[in-house]
Design a protein that fits this description.
4-stranded mixed β-sheet; alpha+beta; 4 helices
Length: 108
């Protein structure tokens, strides 16, 4: 992956890990799998959490995402889900499990 995509993912993982004790990892899928920057395209990600998000938690997640988007001048399409929620969305689950790249926060 290009350095910029790597930097974005690293920064996002560190921020989510720092702010949410139940954050378990991040899947990258979609166009950015090629590691290149794509002008006017969102970086598609699934963030895995142990617990479902209530309104306050979702607002905090979007605050973190907003900072990363502003810092790197990108658009992020983040799906914050539990594993159970991800599996219920058959189309997303198939795309993420077949083609996605998983980033383990323990490695960052």
């Amino acid at each position: 992956m290009s350095n910029n995509v790597d930097e974005i993912i690293t920064s996002l993982i560190k921020s989510l890990k720092e702010n949410f004790s139940d954050f378990k990892g991040l899947y990258l899928f979609g166009l950015y799998l090629d590691g290149q920057m794509h002008e006017d395209e969102d970086i598609e990600l699934v963030a895995i959490f142990d617990h479902e998000q209530d309104k306050a938690k979702r607002e905090e997640i979007w605050r973190v995402i907003g900072k990363i988007e502003e810092e790197f001048d990108v658009f992020i399409d983040l799906h914050p889900l539990t594993v159970g929620e991800l599996k219920k969305d058959e189309e997303l689950y198939q795309e993420v499990s077949e083609d996605g790249i998983f980033f383990n926060p323990e490695l960052f």
